[in-house]
């Protein structure tokens, strides 16, 4: 379960980076400026896009944005691990017949906004669901509230697509659409993307 939770949380963090890159790519910029902007952190890319497109600034104080800041930090700490001490409580050993049991418990801190453990070793399927809800709420804030985008406009920026001349065709597999629609079962609403069946 933890392995899948880690994959889910890290993929969610990468989706913020992917969206930020898609937004920057959608701007008409020189190759030099695009290369320089590519070095910015994900939320700075999003805000740069918003400002250059005259949508206004990203409200860094909003809970949706704070959660993404924590998620990106969690991702960075996951891929650049450091040695850390985690408090453990060890109880008296107990005779269990052919072996001894040493009951112990460990617990870690949680991100205050995202409300998932700071250490990936504690991530669970519930943390994956919490993270997906936070991602959906951030993207709704960004794409619907700030940009006032229609799903058609988002299809021109976000998903993979095949382009032949002036004709564009989304390259989104039916499995992706079913999984995005199925996320609603866990309180995750991506309907604003216009990809659900």
For the structure shown, list the relevant keywords.
single chain, 197 residues, two-stranded antiparallel ribbon, mainly alpha
Total count of strands? 6
- CA-based gyration radius: 21 Å
SSE pattern: HHHHEEEEHHEEH
Largest sheet, spatial ordering of strands: 1-4
Shape: elongated
Q: Helical stretch count?
A: 7
Integer average pLDDT: 90
N→C terminal distance: 28 Å
- What is the strand content? 5-15%
Largest sheet: 2 strands, antiparallel
Task: Give a topology summary.
Elements: H1 2-25, H2 31-37, H3 42-52, H4 63-79, E1 88-90, E2 94-95, E3 100-101, E4 104-106, H5 125-146, H6 151-157, E5 161-164, E6 167-170, H7 174-182
Antiparallel strand pairs: 1-4, 2-3, 5-6
Summarize the structure.
The chain is mainly alpha-helical. It has seven helices and six strands; from the N terminus they run ααααββββααββα.
């Amino acid at each position: 379960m933890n392995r899948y939770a880690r994959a889910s949380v890290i993929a969610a963090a990468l989706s913020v980076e992917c969206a930020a890159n898609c937004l920057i790519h959608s701007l008409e910029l020189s190759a030099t400026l695009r290369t320089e902007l590519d070095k910015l952190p994900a939320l700075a890319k999003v805000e740069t896009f918003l400002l250059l497109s005259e949508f206004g600034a990203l409200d860094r104080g909003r809970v949706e944005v704070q959660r993404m800041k924590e998620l990106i930090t969690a991702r960075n700490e996951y891929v650049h691990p450091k040695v850390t001490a985690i408090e453990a409580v060890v109880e008296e050993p107990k005779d269990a017949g052919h072996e001894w049991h040493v009951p112990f418990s460990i617990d870690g801190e949680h991100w205050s906004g995202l409300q998932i453990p700071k250490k990936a070793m504690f991530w669970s399927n519930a943390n994956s669901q919490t993270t997906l809800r936070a991602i959906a709420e951030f993207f709704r804030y960004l794409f619907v509230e700030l940009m006032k985008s229609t799903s058609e406009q988002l299809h021109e920026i976000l998903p993979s697509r095949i382009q032949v001349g002036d004709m564009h065709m989304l390259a989104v597999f039916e499995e992706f659409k079913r999984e995005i629609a199925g996320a609603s079962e866990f309180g995750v609403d991506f309907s604003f993307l216009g990809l659900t069946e």
